[in-house]
Specification:
Elements (H helix, E strand, L loop, with lengths): L2 E4 L2 E8 L3 E6 L7 H11 L3 E6 L16 H14 L5 E6 L1 H12 L4 E7 L14 H16 L3 H11 L7 H13 L2 H13 L13 E6 L5 H10 L3 E6 L6 H4 L1 H14 L4 H18 L1
Parallel strand pairs: 3-4, 3-5, 5-6, 6-7, 7-8
Antiparallel strand pairs: 1-2, 2-4
Helix pairs in contact: 1-10, 2-3, 4-5, 5-6
Length: 287
């Protein structure tokens, strides 16, 4: 099990392929599994695909503290340093998307491109007006089931009912077991750092070429579209009939969209208009 000491904590990482480095980071209570098993093999003929687990999750060490988006971003930079990466593309899912925003704002000099997959909103996971009590009740229920001896069975039934695509029972069970295995610090403090995260007013500063991928059946889809509109150098891809788990719902399609962005970068109205203007200017100069 490859682990490297980063910022005083042993963090899991693995990689396949060769070429331009792409570092893929999981979400809140997830791990490297889907990226390593489903996504990286589809890109390994062109890219060096690196996966890692955040502190307190997956196969990484469970320290007492450090469970903030700011620290997670520093851990990514520390891992890149340990692996000798001067620059890399960062792909972050869910909470990993918040980490990606933090990297784009504070460590842009290390990034080639940025991919935010169903990211948490730039203004944090604050409940909608009127939903505060319901959200708090849901979180308390999740805590109770996480600690209860028979809680896993109830959580598993719930996850199976939430499936949008034909994810196998084995995949759902593995995902739940990963979620249940995170440290208490990771579970509680990561939830809090996602709630208080707020970089909305700074998104205009994030100029790294960025792709946002969203699932149309994800409750974060509207926030993802709103954040895409705030970014000055970004493109957007929304998958139909896909929920929050975009890489696991449609791994082949996800890898294809990711590969296209890695090759072509941002293509939007502005870039097309710029290309037309440059082409016309060149033609006029040569006539």
């Amino acid at each position: 099990m490859p682990r490297t000491m980063v910022n005083g904590v042993e963090l899991f990482h693995d990689e396949v392929g060769s070429g331009e480095p792409v570092l893929l980071h999981h979400g809140y209570t997830s791990s490297h599994d889907v990226f390593l098993n489903e996504i990286a093999p589809r890109l390994a003929d062109r890219y060096r695909c690196i996966v890692m687990d955040a502190r307190g999750a997956g196969e990484s060490e469970h320290p007492a503290d450090g469970y903030t988006i700011e620290q997670y971003a520093l851990d990514v930079i520390g891992m890149a340093d340990a692996l000798g990466l001067d620059r890399f593309t960062f792909v972050g899912h869910s909470m990993g998307g918040g980490i990606g925003m933090q990297l784009g704002l504070e460590h842009a000099d290390r990034l080639n491109k940025l991919v935010l997959v169903a990211p948490i909103p730039s203004g944090g996971t604050v409940p909608a007006v009127g939903q505060e009590e319901a959200t708090q009740a849901m979180r308390e229920r999740q805590r109770r089931l996480r600690a209860a001896p028979d809680g896993r069975a109830e959580l598993l039934r719930e996850r199976k009912l939430m499936r949008v695509r034909d994810t196998s029972d084995a995949q759902v069970e593995a995902s739940l077991d990963r979620a249940l295995s995170v440290s208490e610090g990771h579970y509680e403090d990561s939830m809090e750092t996602m709630r208080t995260f707020n970089v909305t007013d700074r998104l205009g500063e994030l100029t790294t070429p960025t792709l946002i991928m969203a699932g149309a059946a994800d409750g974060l889809a509207a926030a993802n579209v709103n954040d895409w509109q705030r970014l000055p150098n970004a493109t957007l891809h929304v998958f139909s009939r896909v929920g929050h788990g975009v890489p696991s719902d449609v791994p082949e399609e996800f890898a294809a969209v990711l590969g296209d962005f890695l090759e072509h970068g941002v293509v939007n109205v502005q870039t097309v208009q710029q290309r037309v203007a440059e082409g016309m200017a060149t033609a006029a100069a040569s006539s």
